[in-house]
Design a protein that fits this description.
single chain, alpha/beta, Rossmann fold, Arc Repressor Mutant, subunit A, 2 domains, 10 helices, globular, transcription regulation, Tscrpt_reg_LuxR_C, DNA binding, transcription
C-alpha cells in the first residue's frame, strides 16, 4: 500500500510542484489537496491520509491550528509543517501541535520524499537547523521540577540512550558510543517513547531537557 499524502497550501503552484515531485515515488500517492486550514481539516477527515504536508500561513485557520485539530480527530495522521519561515515561534508552535516534522521549502526533492517516508514510518524529522533551535531553546532553560518524575520509569540504559538522543546523536552514533548495535539503540529509543507516552523522538528530546536529564 502506498503512503497517502494530503497537500495543504494556499498556493496552487506550490501544491502542483509538490504533487509532481511526490508522484515520482512509487510508494507515495497524493490523494488530495487543500488551500485553507478549514479545507485541510475537512479533507483530512474525509480521506484520513497517512501524511499531511501543511503550510503555516493559509487563509482562515493557520496551518498549526489546523494541524492540532486534525490530530485531535485522527492521532495516527502524521503532519509535516512545510514553510518558508523558520522562526522559533513557528518551530515550537508546530511541535506543541504534535507535528512530526518541520521543514523549510528549500528542501530538495529527494529530501521531501524521504521526509514523507520517515514520518509515515512513525519517526520524527526536523531539518538540522531546526534541530539546533530546539536543542538551543532547552539548553538555556533551567530544568523544571517534575511532579511525576517521568524519567523514573526508564531503565538506566534507556536513560543513557535518551540523553544521547537529546544531545543530537543518531542511532548509529549512539550505537558506537555505547558499543551496541544500531537496532538495539533503536529498540531502547522505542521503549523510552512508549514508557514516557510521547509521540516521537522530538518530544523525547523535549522531555529530556524539561526534566533535567541533559
Amino acid at each position: 500500500m502506498p503512503i497517502t499524502v494530503l497537500l495543504a497550501d494556499d498556493q496552487q503552484l506550490v501544491r502542483a510542484g509538490f504533487r509532481s515531485l511526490l508522484r515520482r515515488a512509487r510508494d507515495i500517492e497524493v490523494v488530495g489537496e487543500a488551500s485553507t486550514g478549514d479545507e485541510a481539516i475537512r479533507t483530512a477527515r474525509a480521506l484520513r491520509p497517512d501524511v499531511i504536508l501543511m503550510d503555516i500561513r493559509m487563509p482562515g485557520l493557520d496551518g498549526i491550528t489546523a494541524a492540532r485539530r486534525v490530530l485531535e480527530e485522527n492521532p495516527d495522521t502524521r503532519i509535516i509543517i512545510l514553510t518558508t519561515f523558520e522562526t522559533d515561534e513557528y518551530v515550537f508552535a508546530a511541535l506543541a501541535a504534535g507535528a512530526s516534522g518541520f521543514l523549510t521549502k528549500e528542501i530538495d526533492p529527494d529530501g521531501l520524499r524521504t521526509a514523507v517516508r520517515v514520518v509515515a514510518a512513525g519517526d520524527a524529522l526536523l531539518s538540522p537547523s531546526v534541530t539546533r533551535r530546539v536543542v538551543g531553546q532547552f539548553t538555556g532553560r533551567p530544568a523544571r521540577a517534575s511532579r511525576n518524575d517521568r524519567l523514573a520509569v526508564l531503565t538506566e540504559r534507556e536513560r543513557e540512550v535518551v540523553k544521547l538522543v537529546a544531545s543530537g546523536l543518531s542511532n548509529d552514533d549512539i550505537a558506537a558510543a555505547l558499543v551496541i548495535s544500531p537496532l538495539t539503540a533503536k529498540t531502547h529509543i522505542t521503549r523510552a517513547i512508549t514508557k514516557l507516552g510521547v509521540r516521537d523522538r522530538v518530544q523525547l528530546v523535549i522531555v529530556a531537557y524539561q526534566d533535567g536529564l541533559v
